[in-house]
Amino acid sequence: MVEVAHAVRSYWLIALLWIRAAMAYPVSFWTMTVGGVLITFLDFVAIWLMFSHLDTYGGFTLREVALFYGVTSIAFRVADMLVGSVEKIGRYVRSGDLDAMMTKPVPVLVQLCADRFELRRLGQIAQSVAVFAWAAPIVDWSPQRLAVLAMALLSGVVIYFCMFVAFSTIQFWTTDASEFANAFTYGGNTIMQYPMTIFPREVVRSLTYLLPLAFVNWYPCLFLLGLHDPFGAPGWFRFASPLAALVLVGVTTLVWRQGLRRYRSTGS
């Protein structure tokens, strides 16, 4: 428990340094923040334009798809802001900066995640929240549904966190595989913005049992909408987001430890 508290405090202190650096140039900060909102909003504009010619897509209306979009995007954008810097592992390995990190009394993973913390990503999170807020009225909210939503968002952040770390760790072996990692992190978020009914059953199974992204928004949102899984998944899957996140945390911990053991100093 003490180690966790130390890691959290260390993360915050490192992130605070980068926040102060960013706020030293407020015009640049707000320009980048607003730019991030506009760029990410184009993702949803593409979906909205598609519905200008359709009433439903995969059996879901625009607001229902917006619900899927909002939940996965909030979870992804929060994880991206908190730990997205870990994808730069390859750069630190090549430059030898990772050697310096390993000599400090702070976990290497904490340093990697907090390095170059980008507060401007709050704009992207705000855009995701706005889309979710627009879609939210279609849900018949109750205390249970609110609990499932909170559980899904928290678990979603953890799941995306694990994906950032696990796929970035591959760079300990390849030195540079950031684009490979992005295909699963950013690409996974893009896939989950759409209902699973537009994909073959094999893809849905892969996103359930291999990369449990379906637990970020698909199964929880089915519960929020009062629907059953059209692919016949067990009903309890709609509440299993924390379990999927816990399993992925275990796998990611093993992958990270193996990657760190694999690392050999550059000698520089």
Which terms summarize this structure?
268 residues
Structure in words:
The protein is mainly alpha-helical and 268 residues long. It is 70% helix and 0% strand. The protein has 13 helices and no strands. Helix 3 packs across helix 8, helix 8 (143-169) packs antiparallel against helix 12 and helix 8 packs parallel to helix 13 (241-262). It is globular and about 55 Å long.
Helix content: 55-70%
Largest sheet: none
Mean pLDDT level: 89
Low confidence ranges: none
Distance between the termini: 35 Å
Return the structural class. mainly alpha
Fold blueprint:
Blueprint: H1 2-23, H2 26-50, H3 62-83, H4 89-95, H5 97-102, H6 108-114, H7 122-135, H8 143-169, H9 171-174, H10 178-191, H11 201-210, H12 218-224, H13 241-262
